[in-house]
Amino acid sequence: MAARRSRSRETGGAGLGLTVARQAARAHGGDVTLIRRAEGGLIARLDLPLRAGGD
User: Fold this and answer.
1) I need a surface site. Which of 15, 36, 45, 53 has the fewest CB within 10 A?
2) Residue 19 is part of which domain span?
């Protein structure tokens, strides 16, 4: 029995996960962006601010 392809893969959607990830990143001063690759596919980029450590 073959596994069914997910609906998001069939329609090209990113799904709810991207929205949740972006909200979490923005809550910490960052963001999530998608970059379309010329050869196909996407790169998901997560940017978060870096703070110097301290005691």
Assistant:
1) 53
2) 11-47
